[in-house]
Amino acid sequence: MTQFDLFCMGNPLLDIQVHADEALLARYNLKSNDAILAEPEHFALYEEIVQFPKVVYVAGGASQNTARGAQRLLPDNSVVYVGCTGNDKFRDQLVSAAKADGLTTRYVTIQDVPTGTCAALISGHDRSLVTKLSAAEKMTVEKLKDSATWSLVEGAKFYYVEGYYLTVTPDGILEVAKHAAEHNKVFTMNLSAPFIPQFFTKVLDETLPYMDFVFGNEGEAEAYATAHGLPEPKNTVATALYVAKLPKVNSKRPRVVVFTQGVHNTIVATADGHVEEYPIIAIPENEIVDCNGAGDAFCGGFMADLIKGRDYASCVKKGHYLAHAVIQEVGPAYPRELDTN
Questions:
Q1: Cβ 101 vs Cβ 126: under 8 Å
Q2: What is the 3-state secondary structure (H, E, C) of 89-121?
Q3: What CATH number did the domain enclosing 206 receive?
Q4: Quick check: is 92 catalytic?
Q5: Taking the model in full, what pTM does it have?
Q6: Among 137, 302, 310, 327, which one has the highest count of C-beta atoms within 10 angstroms of its own C-beta?
Q7: 28 in a domain, yes or no?
Q8: What is the DSSP string of 192-249?
Q9: Structural domain of residue 67, as residue ranges?
């Protein structure tokens, strides 16, 4: 079997993307720049938006977006992505879209449950994501440790898991994380959304000791700081340093925390107390098409250069490059031509 450098795991979702106004957001009690799991009050939203005149369907899911981006910058067969889907037309669309980016997928098929979907509501440069996990939330430790799937874990050197997966299989994440620590491989996770540190604090704290790299943005950093009672929750640098210095299972690798801040500098903090800030690539506002997936793209670029053995400055630069490219496209889509150097 082919061994892949990077193993990614998360919720494969078909994004249903529309442009939304404040009235639509208010009707479903949604924020313009947020990500939540759908409650029964949101179910009618999906039926409503598919009737919009301009609907865009995109193969999504945070980790899958990152996996596709990393694969676009790496040699063939460098990245494999694992998650659960239904056995329906949406699964077929996901397979096709992944192949278009050269990504190898191992979707665990869940019979009689639909493939997960995400309502991506775009307002200006903000996006509100409302996710109905469906089949995506059916991953278990047993499915993950199936011989064919677990062999992909064993063959990898780097791991990337979205924070959303802490709502699905925290035990499965820990199995992968423990394998990485035991074999001195690189385990990385993204906080993914403010509700993860807010409402899944316990499982996040149980997993964090295994994280070699922690990714997030300023909103997620503030949510983490608030949940843990830090004195300056809006001080992103202080939160990055706090997380970087937390206890770690694999002492052979110091933890690195990477927090993006929208149009402001990206912060990289290490356990020795060192902090570097890197400016983003400036872009005129009229050239921004859609910021959905920019954070995932950043991580894809960062991971690609990390796998190539490059320094953190290079990793951030490649992350900024890929995020800059994706915000000029509709949805978390990558342009046909990319600089893979």
A1: no
A2: HHHHHHHHHHHHCCCEEEEEECCCCCCEEEEEE
A3: 3.40.1190.20
A4: no
A5: 0.91
A6: 302
A7: no
A8: -STHHHHHSHHHHHHHGGG-SEEEEEHHHHHHHHHHTT-S-TT-HHHHHHHHHTS--S
A9: 6-12+62-115+134-326
101-118 residue pLDDT tens: 999 999 999 999 999 989
With respect to residue 230, please indicate whether it lies within any of the assigned structural domains.
Answer: yes
Q: Which of 27-41, 195-209, 240-254 has the lowest mean pLDDT?
A: 27-41
CA dihedral 195, 196, 200, 203 (to 10 degrees): 180
| Residue 169: Cβ within 10 Å count | 21
Of 282, 288, 281, 237, nearest to 258 (Cα)?
237
Task: Report the DSSP beta bridge partners of residue 6.
Answer: 79, 158
The upper half-sphere exposure of residue 38, i.e. CA atoms within 13 Å in the direction of its Cβ, equals 19
pLDDT of residue 290: 62
Question: Out of 290, 296, 305, 339, which one is annotated catalytic?
Answer: 296
Domain membership of residue 310 (yes or no) is: yes
* Contact present, 170 and 206 (Cβ < 8 Å): yes
